[in-house]
Amino acid sequence: MSVAAKLLEQLVAQQLLGHLNRSGLLPRLKSAYHAFHSTETTVLKVPTDILLAVDTGNLSAIVLDLSVAFDMVDHHFLIHWLRTSCGLSGLVIQWF
């Protein structure tokens, strides 16, 4: 990928993430795409949450979403989600 294409990709990603954050469309507890959150944040938070649940007598369950690990996106689903959940339309949707 050329340097120009990579820069354009970063600009689009920043614009889209800004819109999603301002609109409250990203889950608060999902680490991906949030500033200062990473896999390290999750690795620290999950065991802590489990231990707190055990200490208070509650049950714990973990649901892992590994879909991003395979870097595959159903583009029809993505476009539908961008339209319906994110409110994008027109030229922005055409660009994607």
Written overview of the protein:
This protein is an all-alpha fold. It folds into three domains: 1-28; 31-63, no CATH class; 65-96, no CATH class. Helices cover 55% and strands 0% of the residues. The chain has four helices and no strands. It has helices at 3-22, 39-55, 75-84, 90-95. The longest helix has 20 residues, at 3-22. The chain is elongated and about 50 Å long. The chain starts with a helix and ends with a helix. The model has no long low-confidence stretch (mean pLDDT 78).
What is the chain-wise order of helices and strands? HHHH
Number of helices: 4
Shape: elongated
Rounded to an integer, what's the Rg over CA atoms? 17 Å
Total strands: 0
Major β-sheet profile: none
Helix content: 55-70%
Distance between the termini: 17 Å
Low-confidence stretches: none
The count of domains is 3
Residue fraction in strands: under 5%
Mean pLDDT across the residues is 78
Structural class: mainly alpha
Topology:
Blueprint lengths: L2 H20 L16 H17 L19 H10 L5 H6 L1
Summarize, please.
This protein has 4 helices and no strands. It has 96 residues and is mainly alpha-helical. It is elongated and about 50 Å long.
